[in-house]
Amino acid sequence: MVNPWLLLHMCLHVCFEHPSLCILLALCTQKLDGAYCDPSNLVQNGDFQVQSFLFGSYPTMDVISSGIRTLMPFWVAAAGGFQVLDATVFVPPPGLNASFLIHMNYRSGPGELVSMPIYTLREGAIYTVSFFIADNPDGGPVAKAVRLGLQDIYGRNVAPPGLSPFMVSNSSTTRNSILWQLVSCNVRGTGVPTILSLSSLTPGSFGALVANLQVNLQSMIENGSFENVDPQIQINNLTYFAELTGPSSLIRHWVVETGVIKIATAARYQASTDNTATLLDLNAENSPATISNIFSARSNTDYTLLFDTAANPERNFQLVIGQLVVTVQGLPSTNYLLSETVNLDSTSFSIDSIGWVTMAMEFKTFKDDFQVKVTFRSKIAGSFGPLLDNVQVFENTKSLKSTNETKLDGIPNTPPTITTPTYISTPTTTSIAFKIACPLSTYLVTLLLLTFTCYKVS
Question: What domain of life (predicted)?
Answer without folding.
Answer: Eukaryota
